[in-house]
Amino acid sequence: MTSNYKPLNRDQMAWRAAQDLQEGAYVNLGIGMPTLAASYVPDGREVIFHSENGILGLGPKPEPGMEDENLIDAGKSYTTLIKGGVFMHHADAFLMIRGKHLDVSLLGAFEVSERGDLANWTTEDPSFPPGVGGAMDLAVGAKEIRVIMDHTDKKGNPRILKKCRLPLTAPGCVKRIYTNLAVIDVTPQGLFVREMVEGMTLEKLQELTEPKLQLANDWQALAPPAMAA
Amino acid sequence: MIDKRVASPADAVAGVKDGAVVLVAGFGTVGIADDLLEALHDQGATNLTIVHNNAGNGDTGLARLINSGRVSKVICSYPRSGDYSAFLNAYRAKTLELELVPQGIISERMHAHAAGLGGFFSPVTAHTKLAEGKETREIDGVLHVFEKPLKGDIALLRARKADRWGNLVYNQSARNFNPIMAMAADLSVVQVDEMVELGSMDPEAVVTPSIFIDRVVVVGAKDLGTKA
Question: Which pTM was predicted?
Answer without folding.
Answer: 0.94
